[in-house]
Amino acid sequence: MSAETMLRYRVTGRAPQTADTTTLVLEPLERAAPRFRAGQFMMLYSFGVGEVAISISGNPAVDGTILEHTIRAVGAVSRALADTPIGGVIGVRGPFGIGWDVESATGRDLVIIGGGVGLAPLRSVVLAVLAARDAYRRVIVLTGARTPADILFRRDQDRWEFAEHIELHRTVDHPTSDWTGSVGFVTDPIDQLELDPGNSTAFLCGPEPMMRFCAQALLRRGVAATDIRVSVERNMQCGIGRCGHCQLGPLLLCRDGPVVDYGVAGPLLAAREL
To answer: Which of 109, 171, 234, 270 has the fewest other C-beta atoms within 10 Å?
Structure first.
């Protein structure tokens, strides 16, 4: 079965994350999509409204027929998808794109940095790593949000904070009176980390300025650009590299990304016209 085939999935679970972001659990009505890899995305179709690319935020190590998508309602299609009730049906195509390739970082330290809704595709990295924890050395997770109310996967992060096998650093830009955690940008903790730069692989996702600043901070610490992986988004409409809407310089991100090493992505992200 081709990944281009539209399949019907039923919403079997809903978990509001923030005021405008919801995680949907989807299960196939008939056939299931091919098994996904951490970092890939699906084209999700709200019948009668339209289609949009959404990263997979679930665990690739669990039942491959179940999908989790964390959707921020920012337009007509994403709002319709996020509002789909339990029992509602969504069209699914995919999976598409190049994933994080977590397996290639076996035996290394992992630095996972997510800003805002960028934590959604990185959740699959953390879950995949936890499922094979002995294959990796240190696992450092840095998460940032604008305010405490904007924190994604709060239950997951609460578990990670007290887990012995993960080092979690949480920060918010604008604290509330009851916030007791760190305040500042998600880039701030990087300079304080004890790193083994020659044996570290970094995974970054969030707003492009955030990824640039984080990548530059890691480069200053001695991490190689080819060991820094970023997830880059553009307007993905076909998912198979034909329409050209997701072009970034020589890349078609639905085909050549969304995950790209910073040695390739860095110069492209620095070019304003791209």
So the answer is: 270
89 CB burial (10 A radius; 0-12, 13-18, 19+): middle
Percent of residues, the chain, with pLDDT higher than 70: 97
Strand order through the sheet with 7-16: 50-55, 41-46, 89-96, 7-16, 21-28, 67-72
Cα of first residue to Cα of last residue in the chain, in angstroms, is 35
Give the distance, in angstroms, between the CA of residue 32 and the centroid of all CA atoms in the same chain: 22
172 beta partners: 145, 183
Answer with the residue of higher pLDDT: 242 or 139.
Answer: 139
SS3 (DSSP) at 246: coil
Q: Is 261 exposed, middle or buried (0-12, 13-18, 19+ CB in 10 A)?
A: middle
Q: Which domains does the chain show, CATH number per domain?
A: 7-96 (2.40.30.10), 102-231 (3.40.50.80)
How many CB atoms within 10 Å of residue 43?
Answer: 23
- 109 in helix, strand or coil? strand
Q: What is the pTM of this model?
A: 0.94
In eight-state DSSP terms, residue 106 is T
Question: Distances from the Cα of 108 to the Cαs of 103, 124, 138, 150, 227, in angstroms?
Answer: 10, 18, 7, 31, 11
Percent of the chain's residues with pLDDT above 90:
78
Residues 6+ apart with CB under 8 A from 48: none
Helix and strand numbers (H, E) in the chain are 6, 15
Cα-flanking dihedrals φ and ψ of residue 171, to 5°? -145, 150
